[in-house]
């Protein structure tokens, strides 16, 4: 006997409430990315080009977030997709991390090449576009901040915009230094700083996405603690075949077999186990199989 309990769409519905803000950030950053890229080639600024490349991944990441949210909504009507398409946003976050890492590596390689003979950079247009970038990133940062707490994909876009915000400040500083001192070395130096800032954040985002895709237990949950808490439920004699994983960001899932003691009430045990998972671990989707202790062989071993 078993029971499932939960609300599949709570996190994704929360992400969907931010669709309007996502579209606003998407349009704003797309326009600025094109301006930054054109200006970077016109001025010869690697720092500005690195910021435009980073902004491209912002735009791509937000676009994938929007696509994942839309696909998830459509999947709700498909009976074959019993878990919807929640994993799409995790795949999008992983692709985003890979692309962002590639941009960072390219910038670092190009910066090292330029240290030998830094080219002349036009500081005026570079400064003007960097100031526009700062304003656009501040607006996008405000638009995405709320959604960053409910979705790994939105968190990826939020982190990229945060990186872009700091990158814009670096480009502004480089443009001012070049305008005042003609010290061309500052352009590749700022590009290196932006690249080094991006890489660790990219690693953390990619690692979080991979953990979800391989169905590892959430880092903030100890499986032994979940086991012991279920074992402590009145009427439970044994807990086995316990699995805890993340379906998508903020949506933890569990399954377990509970052997109940003779005379224990099945309904009471099931309700108490659900309550324990919800209150102690915020697990709202749990599939629990109840096995009477007086029925030997009721649970056959499963080889994984």
TrEMBL record:
Keyword Cell cycle tagged: no
Gene3D superfamilies per record: Cation efflux protein transmembrane domain (1.20.1510.10)
GO CC terms in record: plasma membrane
Domain Cation efflux protein cytoplasmic: 219-292
Domain Cation efflux protein transmembrane: 25-214
Compartment(s): Membrane
Segments passing through the bilayer: 22-49, 55-72, 84-109, 121-144, 156-178, 184-203
SUPFAM superfamilies reported in the protein's UniProt record: Cation efflux protein cytoplasmic domain-like (SSF160240), Cation efflux protein transmembrane domain-like (SSF161111)
Topology versus the membrane: Multi-pass membrane protein
One Gene Ontology MF term: zinc ion transmembrane transporter activity
Keywords noted in UniProt: Ion transport, Membrane, Transmembrane, Transmembrane helix, Transport
Family under the similarity heading: Belongs to the cation diffusion facilitator (CDF) transporter (TC 2.A.4) family. SLC30A subfamily.
Protein name as it appears in the record: Cobalt-zinc-cadmium efflux system protein
Natural source organism: Micromonospora rhizosphaerae
């Amino acid at each position: 006997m078993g029971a499932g309990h939960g609300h599949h769409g709570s996190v994704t519905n929360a992400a969907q409430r931010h669709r309007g803000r996502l579209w606003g950030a998407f349009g704003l950053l797309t326009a600025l990315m094109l301006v930054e890229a054109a200006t970077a080639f016109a001025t010869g600024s690697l720092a500005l080009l690195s910021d435009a490349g980073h902004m491209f991944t912002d735009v791509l990441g937000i676009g994938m977030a929007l696509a994942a949210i839309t696909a998830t909504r459509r999947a709700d009507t498909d009976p074959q997709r019993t878990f919807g398409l929640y994993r799409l946003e995790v795949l999008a976050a992983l692709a985003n991390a890979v692309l962002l890492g590639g941009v960072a590596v390219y910038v670092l390689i190009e910066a090292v090449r330029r240290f030998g003979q830094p080219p002349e950079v036009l500081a005026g247009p570079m400064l003007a576009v960097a100031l526009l970038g700062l304003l656009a990133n501040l607006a996008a940062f405000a638009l995405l901040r709320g959604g960053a707490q409910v979705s790994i994909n939105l968190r990826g876009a939020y982190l990229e915009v945060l990186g872009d915000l700091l990158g814009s400040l670096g480009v502004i500083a480089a443009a001012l230094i070049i305008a005042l001192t003609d010290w061309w070395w500052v352009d590749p130096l700022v590009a290196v700083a932006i690249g080094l800032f991006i890489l660790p954040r990219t690693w953390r985002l990619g690692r979080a996405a991979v953990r979800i895709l391989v169905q590892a237990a959430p880092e903030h949950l100890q499986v032994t603690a979940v086991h012991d808490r279920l074992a402590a439920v009145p009427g439970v004699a044994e807990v086995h075949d316990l699995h805890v994983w993340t379906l998508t960001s903020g949506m933890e899932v569990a399954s377990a077999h509970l052997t109940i003691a003779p005379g224990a009430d099945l309904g009471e045990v099931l309700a108490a186990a659900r309550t324990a998972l919800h209150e102690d671990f915020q697990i709202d989707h749990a599939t629990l199989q109840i096995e009477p202790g007086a029925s030997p062989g009721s649970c056959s071993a499963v080889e994984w």
